[in-house]
Amino acid sequence: MRWYRVSGLTVTSDIALPSFTEIECADPADIVVRAGEVPAQIANARLIGPNWYLAHDSIVLGIPGVVRMMMRGGDTLIYAVEPGAAPEEVAIFLTGTGIGILLHQRRAIVLHASAVRVGDHAVLFCGPSGEGKSTLAAVLCEAGHDLVADDFCRIELREGAAPLVHPDGRQMRLWEDATEGLGIAARRGAQVRSAIRKFYVAPRAVTARPLRIGAIYALREARAPFAPGLHASNSVDAALLIRRNAYRPLLVREMDQRALYFEAATRLVRDVGIHILARPLDFAALPDAVVTLKSHWRALELGVERAA
Amino acid sequence: MKRRIWLASYPKSGNTWLRLLLANLRADRPADINRLPTEPALASARAPFDRVTLLASGLLTPDECDLLRPAAYRAMARIDDPEEDEGAAGIDDTIFVKTHDAWTHNAAGEAMLAGADAAAGAILIVRDPRDIVASLAHHNASPCDAAIGFMADPAARFAEPRDGQPTQLRQTLTDWSGFQASWLDQREIPVHLIRYEDLQADAGGALARALAFFGVDASAAQCARAAEFARFGRVQDQEQRLGFGEAPRPQLATRFFRRGAAGGWRDELTPTQADRVEAAHAAMMVRLGYPLTERRRECA
Fold first, then answer.
1. Does A92 reach chain B within 8 Å, measured CB to CB?
2. CA-to-CA dists, residue B207 to B43, B91, B198, angstroms
3. What is the per-residue pLDDT across A243-302, written as a single tens digit (0 to 9) for each?
4. Which of A52, A197, A244 sits opposite B163 (nearest CB)?
5. Alpha-carbon gap: B272 to the closest alpha carbon of chain A (Å)
6. Are B137 and B144 in contact (CB under 8 A)?
7. Can you say how many angstroms the Cα of residue B198 is from the centroid of all Cα atoms in its chain?
8. CB neighbours (10 Å) of residue B191?
9. Would you call B166 exposed, middle or buried from its count of C-beta atoms within 10 A (0-12, 13-18, 19+)?
10. Which residues form the Sulfotransferase domain (chain B) (predicted)?
11. What are the tens digits of pLDDT across the range A199-234?
12. Cα B239 vs. chain centroid, distance in angstroms?
């Protein structure tokens, strides 16, 4: 067995999870990942998706020809590799969708976002798939900011305390063109899957402890109606941005967590602030985006000088 | 629960025009071209696929995505998801979803866009292929001859991954003739055909007929006003002032609403180029009512 720390939780697994940070034995773990029987479907499903069955405390989900997995009770992930699939192909789905769904089952506030450390704070970048969350985090990491998260941000909200984000303990996962655009192709690790030109890349430095959230940015491509630069979002839009950038927004709806996320959005809008960052989807434009962000962090007094 | 109708077309055939007409149907001023329904109303968009499959499509191969796409579209039609549907706008209880996919099948033999359980039907917009050439060449910032070759390629696709993640799911177009035949000859869902040239002649009338085909309530006056709000000169002017977020990226081309003409090929293609298009697509051109040039008719 191997042990990992992810989003403030300990995970034990019978299969290597290469994107996670390995730790010493930490039994009993919060989450157990193991091979086993996964039913084809769930009899008492409350909702059936294209490739999943959702029941009261479990979800069975399949990726055709690769793996089927069952996430149960927020603490157990059982996977069955499909015949003919290589076991190395499945880890990326266990560490992403699998662990992400377990976090939703634990009623965690989890955003689909990357994050880096700025002084004593974390800043988060969320946005639709392909919007450059990982690439922006990687360029900031190369510029001296510790990586906090590559894929999901578990947020902790306690009354009377500032909102915190837990590091997701991951390696960066970057497309081939991004590693070349950032000049770090030489540091590429394994491909996440043999057929996908996306690579694990070890971050220059990581943060292991939870950090206060300094700012949340929703990434957009700079094209009409968004001019390049920072845009304020009103509180209604900001609350919607939080809900839409939940790790799996459909599950928030279907697992009756809308009130939970609505409350979280209200807190984050009030205590942190949510901004829209629009920039061209072009590596040549990244330095400008970094300049925009650094000046924003100075305005927010996030202590950028100490981190850089 | 909303019903869904595909807006199917080969690229550069008037799909955006029809989307503009629909966006203007219930408007009291011209709709902002940068606020057209986008992601949930685009079949190849990643976000709705990721949302309904609980997966990151970027971690799947295009073939794996294809295996999931039919079930994904059925689930989108079946699962009540008002927050998502809101972004798709639509008219009353109908959402119009744009697609450049030909009516193809995945490796499991399922129709890629599923069947009647995913959409109530389709509006197919067709355009004289000779007019598509210059428009497609402009869009791709490539020569007309490359566009003619693409339009004749039975394996033509959009968003084929290379070293990064394409913004959309892969789409199989096939060649221009194959695209039209695939939609016209499938028997899963009803199709209403609109010719770009009919939109040119009477956009309000063509819109009214399409809506009537699917039983969407709209008066002749509403359709006429939508046609006026979506008039080519108006949207071109909006693009000039504010830009258009769906235009090709700046390094490729300068604007999306280029010419909007029917018959423009006569001064944009050489006789040889026009002949290549006709030679490749004569049968379908005749089927859709696009007259061949004198020389080609003699050959045929």
1. yes
2. 21, 13, 10
3. 889 999 999 999 999 999 999 999 999 999 999 999 988 889 999 999 999 999 999 999
4. A197
5. 38
6. yes
7. 16
8. 18
9. middle
10. 3-283
11. 999 999 999 899 999 999 999 988 888 889 999 888
12. 19
| Chain B contact present for A63, CB below 8 A | yes
Question: Are the C-beta atoms of B172 and B157 separated by less than 8 Å?
Answer: yes
Can you tell me the ipTM of this complex?
A: 0.95
Rounded Cα–Cα distance for residues A214 and A273 (Å)? 8
Which positions in chain B touch A50 (Cβ < 8 Å)? 52-53, 68, 71-72, 74-75
Q: Does B4 touch chain A (CB under 8 A)?
A: no
Q: Please tell me the predicted confidence (pLDDT) of residue A308.
A: 41
Contact A125, A131 (CB under 8 A): no
**Chain A: closest CA distance from residue B260 (Å):** 21
Confidence of residue B300 (pLDDT cuts 50, 70, 90): low
Q: Which domains are present in chain A?
A: 2-105 (no CATH), 109-307 (3.40.50.300)
pLDDT at position A201: 95
The partner residue sitting opposite A65, judged by closest CB among B64, B79, B164, is B64
Domain architecture of chain B: domains with CATH: 3-128+157-257 (3.40.50)
Is some CB atom of chain A closer than 8 A to the CB atom of B143?
Answer: no
- Cα torsion A85, A86, A90, A92: sign: negative
Is the CB of A52 less than 8 angstroms away from the CB of B72?
no
Task: Report residue B276: phi and psi, to 5°.
Answer: -60, -45
Helical (H) or strand (E) element with B267: helix B265-268
- Buried/exposed A250-287: b ≥16 CB within 10 Å, e otherwise: bbbbbbebeebbeebbebbbeebbbbbbbbbbebeebe
Contact A176 B247 (CB under 8 A): no
- pLDDT tens string A82-137: 999 998 899 999 999 999 999 999 999 999 999 999 999 999 999 877 889 999 99
